[in-house]
UniProtKB/TrEMBL annotation:
Record's compositionally biased regions (Low complexity): 820-829
UniProt feature, compositional bias: Basic and acidic residues: 801-813
Record keyword Transmembrane helix present: yes
Keyword terms of this UniProt record: Membrane, Transmembrane, Transmembrane helix
InterPro entries for this protein: AB_hydrolase_fold (IPR029058)
Protein's name according to its UniProt entry: Integral membrane protein
TM region positions: 102-120, 132-152, 195-212, 272-291, 303-324, 344-362, 382-401, 413-435, 464-485, 537-558, 584-604
Region annotation (Disordered) ranges: 1-26, 223-248, 793-829
Highest rank taxon of the organism: Bacteria
Lineage of producing organism: Bacteria, Bacillati, Actinomycetota, Actinomycetes, Kitasatosporales
Keyword Transmembrane: yes
Composition bias, Pro residues: 1-19
């Protein structure tokens, strides 16, 4: 996973000289640009072909125009002020890069499970319920690791080493398995030794996940905040102790706490527990078959096997306890790594795995493999555990939601449980797809599980789960059709509003009516509203997946046969339906796995596909790894400290004004960085956001962190904040931060999009519908940007006074001065 090369810059321009401390100049001005999803080159952000990197590395860096590298040291023109310099922060290297980065898509279930942790409903009390919610999500995440390890064991141990290598007919068609076949009479022909050899595959998978988690943590997430910032917020700089500092930080919004973007301890503990769980799953799969054989034969080996199984169970219980007790500590920055625990637990599990391999590899001359390993009981246990955890998580979420009933929360607090179910379903499709495809490859092309007694067959549960996928897709057609009809009706109703907004036919100089143009704009406005209806579709999908998954477990338990065979004797029609569902579902599962791999590769090689799915991926990897340590790395744990460092150091060195100008996902990073600033830096900073998903996506799905009260609290700290939005934008929207009129208005919009309805003297060519992009070309952008810089000038009331009163302990709400300043320079859209 090598980081991508830096964006191209002017090769003829040498790197800048080492920076010197500029003289303090209150009129110095800097616009710090932060791009959104998909990334932009410095040349695009700065609108210049000659750019140079002033700080950072190939992954994330600050760029300027060549002419602006010394902007702070220049003298102001006679009788005027210097124009604000522009600086671009490019962080796209944190989320995109080479083709190998596409493999991160295989970690999608882990990322989705991690999202469920942050979707906890907002509540002001019930600390035990909040801790229970986090523990349940972490247990769901642990079950995904066990499922992945069990799937690797199913492919390598059961299908390959036990069934195919143990069958002379199957091994005869696979020459690379000949040395494992009983007909070969070699040292590896005994079943236990075959299993011990095949265990190298799942063991390597778990080791790879551990390595990637540890490596990406060191590369992307192990960042430090500016010196003294955490002490300033926690109060330790004033001589208070850690308990008092923790109590002080607990009163802050979550993203303002000093330890929020530094989860070293919890990630290390979870990584140790998940690694141990993976190794123990492999050890249990290897030892179980040998224990069953020895129990039937009796004697001392059976006793040793039982003791080994007890040790495996005890170590697994220890891993579960570590997961349950590994909650995040955000009130203080916790650099501890718990070296004894994080080393002892994986080491103990690895030792037990080695003992299992030795036990299974002991010579048993009369042992022959037949049937299947214990795949069905293991997969059923995982599926039942996931269902029970999902229901318990839903109950806990409802209890938390009922304490506040925060409006706008996705699925009335059930967003987290729904996403957890989708994580389990996605993992089931991926792991089941691997097993189905391998079984299909080994049995010579027959339908997996239907190829005859000698053909390798995956567990019955996987066949039943594949059979319910066509039913799930049919059920989804109902809400999709409903949304399509509703969108068409909304587009028709929107046409009149479009003509009213542009004054079509209402004034002598107004544009003439154009049915095609009206329909184009109205359709765009109606389609983007599907973003607001996505929670319902997610809820329907999660509910149907949970019910059908439970039905698959029950049917596999009752019938003990694959769907096609279980329907024998039920009539020709029933048998045909069962066979069709089994065959179609099997291919859909395999196709789903291949689609994950293909989509991941295309997402990082074709910009168009990258932008289409980029918002979902960037939302998922924005959050720290609080539930699953094997999830893709959190880029915000690098980007937020970067922005915090830059804002704080620049404002302290120059004493000047800074406007943090952010688009799309960049607005989320900007808000997180502002929360981490101290009062002095915040007093010299203004925030300009456009195309922002802060409320539309983050406020809805993550209400405990970006809900209405949290955004209003941010506005109290950052009174100079303006947000631009359009009603043709599928991602951005109003922030809506308000406090009963006591705070200056944040939102301006909706801006007209397109700027002109038809051709005119000012717009002789048809204007395109910009949607989520092109905000900086709107005239309102320049007006608001200039107003923010003007409001930050020394001597004007507002932001600086806000910082001074905050330091002196005066009330947070101020009167007319702040409001008049916040409304300066505004004009209607």
């Amino acid at each position: 996973m090598t980081p991508p090369p830096p964006p191209p810059s002017d090769a003829s321009v040498p790197p800048p000289l080492p920076a010197t401390r500029p003289a303090r100049d209150p009129e110095a001005a800097l616009e710090l640009l932060v791009h959104g999803v998909g990334g932009h080159t410095p040349q695009e952000m700065l609108d210049s072909a000659r750019t140079v990197r002033v700080s950072g590395d190939e992954t994330a860096a600050l760029y300027r125009r060549v002419a602006d590298t010394d902007a702070e040291s220049r003298a102001a023109p006679p009788g005027g002020r210097r124009e604000p310099a522009q600086e671009a922060y490019c962080w796209s290297g944190l989320t995109s890069g080479g083709a190998t980065r596409a493999l991160w898509l295989l970690l999608l279930p882990f990322m989705v499970a991690n999202l469920a942790h942050w979707m906890r409903p907002d509540t002001s009390g019930l600390p035990r319920a909040r801790r229970l919610y986090g523990a349940l999500v972490r247990l769901v995440a642990l079950s995904l690791t066990v499922l992945f390890a069990a799937s690797a064991c199913e492919v390598a141990l059961d299908l390959t080493a036990w069934q195919c290598a143990g069958s002379a007919a199957c091994a005869a068609h696979r020459s690379w398995l000949a040395f494992l076949s009983p007909a070969h009479h070699g040292w590896w022909s005994q079943p236990g030794r075959r299993l011990a050899l095949a265990a190298a595959v799942p063991t390597a998978l778990v080791t790879l996940l551990w390595y990637l988690s540890r490596r990406t943590w060191a590369m992307y997430e192990n960042q430090r905040t500016p010196d003294g910032a955490e002490e300033d917020r926690a109060g330790t700089a004033r001589g208070t102790g850690p308990d008092e500092a923790s109590e002080h930080a607990a009163d802050l919004p979550a993203l303002a706490r000093p330890g929020f973007w530094y989860g070293r301890r919890v990630v290390a503990r979870l990584r140790a527990a998940h690694t141990a769980a993976g190794f123990l799953t492999v050890g249990a799969a290897v030892a179980d078959a040998a224990v069953r054989h020895d129990t039937a034969a009796g004697g001392t080996p059976a006793l040793l096997g039982r003791l080994l199984q007890a040790a495996l169970a005890a170590c697994a219980l220890a891993a579960v306890l570590v997961v349950c007790r590994s909650g995040r500590s955000e009130s203080v920055r916790d650099p501890r790594a718990d070296g004894a625990l994080t080393t002892a637990l994986p080491a103990a599990s690895l030792a037990l795995l080695a003992a299992s391999l030795l036990y299974a590899g002991w010579s048993r001359p009369g042992w022959r493999s037949s049937g299947t390993l214990t795949g069905d009981p293991a997969f059923r246990a995982v599926a039942l555990a996931q269902a029970v955890l999902a229901v318990a998580l839903a109950v806990t979420a409802l209890v938390l939601y009922r304490t506040t009933r925060r409006t706008g929360t996705a699925l009335r607090g059930l967003g987290g449980p729904a996403v957890a179910v989708l994580a389990c379903g996605t993992a089931g499709v991926m792991t089941g797809g691997v097993a189905q495809r391998v079984a299909d490859w080994l049995d010579g092309g027959a339908t997996p599980g239907m190829g005859g007694a000698a053909a390798p067959a995956p567990p019955t549960l996987l066949s039943w789960q594949a059979s319910v996928i066509p039913a799930l897709l049919v059920l989804l057609l109902v809400p999709v059709a409903f949304l399509a009809v509703r969108t068409v009706r909304a587009a028709r109703a929107e046409r009149a509003r479009v003509e009213a907004d542009y004054g079509v036919g209402r004034a002598p100089d107004g544009p003439p009516a154009d049915a095609v143009r009206t329909r184009q704009i109205a359709d765009r406005r109606a389609v983007v509203r599907l973003t607001d209806r996505a929670p319902r579709l997610v809820g329907v999908l999660a509910g149907a997946a949970l019910l059908l998954g439970a039905a698959a477990v029950a049917l596999s338990w009752i019938s003990g046969e694959v769907p096609g065979r279980a329907a024998d004797g039920a009539g020709p029609f029933t048998e045909a339906v069962a066979d069709t569902a089994q065959g179609v579902g099997s291919w859909l599962v395999g196709f789903g796995f291949l689609a994950f791999v293909t989509l991941g590769r295309l997402a990082y090689s074709r910009p168009g596909i990258r932008q289409t799915i980029g918002i979902l991926w960037d939302v998922g990897t924005f959050w720290p790894r609080a539930a699953h340590p094997f999830a893709p790395p959190c880029y915000a744990e690098r980007a937020v400290p970067d922005l915090t460092w830059r804002i704080r150091t620049w404002t302290r060195q120059t004493g000047g004004r800074l406007v943090l100008s952010a688009h799309s996902q960049g607005t989320v990073l900007a808000a997180a960085a502002v929360w981490q600033l101290d009062a002095e830096a915040r007093g010299r900073t203004a925030l300009l956001t456009y195309g922002s998903p802060l409320k539309r996506l983050y406020g809805r799905w993550f209400p405990a962190y970006f809900g209405g009260p949290q955004l209003t609290a941010l506005h109290r700290e950052m009174r100079l904040w303006r947000n631009l939005f359009r009603d043709t934008d599928p991602i951005g929207g109003p922030v809506g931060a308000t406090d009963g009129g006591a705070l200056p208005e944040v939102d301006r919009g909706p801006l007209k999009d397109p700027l002109a309805y038809g051709r005119s003297a000012a717009h002789p060519l048809p204007e395109a519908v910009s949607g989520h992009g092109g905000y900086q070309s709107d005239p309102a952008f320049a007006v608001e940007r200039a107003a923010l810089f003007t409001s930050l000038l020394p001597g004007l009331p507002g932001q600086q006074r806000r910082a001074d009163t905050r330091e002196s302990g005066e009330p947070a709400h101020e009167g007319g001065a702040g409001r008049s300043q916040g409304s300066s320079g505004r004009s209607s859209a």
